[in-house]
Fold these 3 entries.
Entry 1:
Amino acid sequence: MPVLLNARTDTYLFRDPSASDDDLLAETIDRGRAYVQAGADGLFVPGIADQAAIAAICKAVTVPVNLMLGAEPVDLDELLRLGVRRLTCGPAFQLQAQQQLQDTIASLPAPRQA
């Protein structure tokens, strides 16, 4: 049975606040290339939104790049043009549904005292 190994790097999701954008991009590309050399079939980079960085990563690694959708709308055609080949929903939809449920509960009138 075939297996797809999609290596994950959280350089953007858990960004080091002291890292520059250039350092972050370089670290992500270095990790991606190392994962490919170790046998990864894909690279998952959650938390990234900068289009120039996305394009640079897609060009620098030789495997499909996977991103995680957030709550904000995305242009799927633009992501495809940049080189993204997979999208993951992650927890965005569940978090939105949970927030809507909490908002609905909070808006209910308080029960009357008997």
Entry 2:
Amino acid sequence: MLKHRTVKSLVGLLLILVLCAAVLLGCGNEGTEGDDSGSAASGEPIKVGVVTSVSGSIAADGQALLGATKLWAQEVNDNGGLLGRKVELLVEDSASDPKTTNEKTKAVLGRGAEVVIGPILTAERTASQPAVTKAGIPFLYGTFYEGGAYDDLMFIGSEVPEQQTEQFVPYLAEKYGPKFYFLGSDYDFPRIANEKAKGYLEAAGGQAVGEEYIALGTTDFSSVLTRVADAKPDVVFCDVVGTDGIALSKQFYDYGLSKDVTFASIVHMESYIDAIGPEASEGTIVCFGYFENMSSPANDAFIESFKEVEPSVPATTITARSYVLLQMWAKAVEAAGTTEGQAVRKAMEGLTLTETVIGDVTMRATDHHCAAHMYVAEAHDGEFEVVKDLGLIQPGEDQRNAN
């Protein structure tokens, strides 16, 4: 009798264990049906990789980008998150160096990044983007660049040379004179941008009276400026970047060249003007799709919020475009119901956002670039003042392998 009761007890215990396992299995499946590799368990944050220069020669631009990501993440989390999950920034300093950028990008991928944004320089982008997209993860790039880059998982929200130079160069030639001296940093963006600018200049009846490309890290421009003075140009067309560009501008002013030569740039943003100072930057003329002091309901609200996050960092076109690019990615994630790369790609292609800080924006499906409303502005008393609205300019016909 005792043996029979023992067997019955064991059977009963086994039945209880089976029922418990079934309940636990059911609970584990609840809420995950339909999930894929891009959807983590409920409550786990969506990890956003931010690889940008917070140190080195291009740090001011990297800090402007980082501020945009901080504000975007704060706003998303304050509004309940994305797909019901908080977003978490995985920030790494690329130190304005391609090798470091590659290492830091792999680091954020190893930590589970579901999207990566940044960095700044062309060489940094080419050192980081392939690893990201090969992993099936979207790569977002919000820095103006030389154009011609494409991957089905890379999305570019920034200006390309056609947008910055096609109308800007003829405007400069007509207003200030047809003789240009081109000065650029020695890498792809300045070389390709200037080559296109020279074509627009020639079509407008102008000519290049000089052209030089200067190694990154140069601080003494005395010999360069002597050659500029000897050539007697009407316009110096500059895309010398970062701390180099700041040093060049100061020395251009100290040499007295600003009295007779117009200093035009497609890289000098608000962060440069802050570093150069109001007096030395007076009269600098630039072309971008965004300026910090442009007044609109969207930009007024953006700047107020941005200054709470980064009170000492100027907002630039890189800031605004990176912020909008993240908004576009988030909208695509919501539409796809997942962060999985290819699903997000399908939702992002052709996606339009209206009334953003840079106006209405559409991610072109063919090549993942955006049209931009462009402006010419001059520096006066340490701020840019828009002097000409160039209207909406397309990023060429097709940026896939455009160069």
Entry 3:
Amino acid sequence: MDEENERISPERVMEMLGIKKTQYYARLNKLGIKPARKNGKAYLTNDQLEQLRDYKEPSQNALATVDTESELIIGSQDSAEQITDNEQDDLLRSAAELRAQQMSLSDLVKIHLAAKMKFEDLPEDLKEQVQSVNRAANPDIKKSAASIASQMLDRYRQK
């Protein structure tokens, strides 16, 4: 088969394997496959397609080995009884830290987005809210000066 017939577009590969773009790129990364490029377009060879086709996603039910002094293997509910209290506390703490990180990530992204936003990026109702606060916090200096002058003159005249 010549080189021209061996090129397969990423879209065709995803269609053939019944996977989405994220799965496609995850498999490429896991297998260390670098698509070739020609005229700015990526493509895979038949060999690379076969590697992707043969790739099996790790099963969620697969056994996981934990490197501890006891070389504990976790894979079923029965093995949960073999976990010591300290190991359980460590696992729960690690899980809690991971969850806290996941929960705070969206807030961190929001903080960074907000820091980069300009007044023009705000929706109209929020622009009005900002303008209203600015008017209250920073009154027009001319009106303030005129008001101060009037009050001073009134006090002077009352003496």
